[in-house]
Amino acid sequence: MAQTTRSSTHDAYDARPRDNDPRPAAVDDYFKAHLHAASYNDSLEVIRNNSLVAGLPDIACSPSQAKLLMLQARMCNAKRILEVGTLGGYSAAWFATTSPETKVTTIELDSHFAEVARQNLEKAGLIDRVEILQGLAVDVLRGIEEQVQRGDREKFDFVFIDANKQDNLVYFKAAMGITRERAVIVVDNVVRNGKVSSAEEAEKDDRIKGTRELVEAIGKLDAVDATAIQTVGEKNYDGFLVAMRK
Ligand code: DHB
Ligand code: MG
What we know:
By secondary structure, the protein is of the alpha/beta class. The protein has helices at residues 23-35, 43-53, 63-75, 90-96, 111-123, 137-150, 168-177, 199-204, 206-219, and strands spanning 80-84, 103-108, 130-134, 156-161, 179-187, 224-231, 238-245. The radius of gyration is 17 Å and the shape is globular. Magnesium ion is lined by residues 59, 162, 188-189.
């Protein structure tokens, strides 16, 4: 299945901390209170609430995760950022704050999600830095690759893959074709409550299968260095894969 959808095809994914352990969310709140003082509760946080009110699934990054992604992009001095899976535009908004010169291109299949994201980014005053491309990600990525090959579009410095997990490997390969050397590619949700390490879970859930295909393919690639890190926090037990082109 090749589509970038985040609402209709996934079973309810419990985004709350697991095992009723209050500590991960309390720790996120503590860090946010001290480290996000300037930005927390501002227009970026409004985006998460607007998206829920508009009926989007509660699967956006947490504030700490989104800020970490932006800091990673800033560490790379990223001027061209690509996101696969816009949802309501929350992470795109954070990426848009990487620098005043940074441009974000974000791909979303669902036209309602894309419209909510456009409104959110407009309200946040960031729409001028964000290009929302609505369509099937595989098709949109092919178009982007053609533009890059023709010299009509600059290569990307940083890619965030956060769409339907079944096509993670397709998106990663596409990202390899449209990024510069030393570009960073981050993939969201690679742990999924620990299910990633289970071949049995992959048989039951093609999202786990898609992520395992990606992990195992990257392990055989000479062109990148990669690792993955498990996360807890106000979102469920999950994690990011971080790859860097050599
Ligand atoms: C799901 C997707 C996400 O990108 C995420 O961060 C959490 C959950 C999902 O499809 O269930
Ligand atoms: Mg995600």
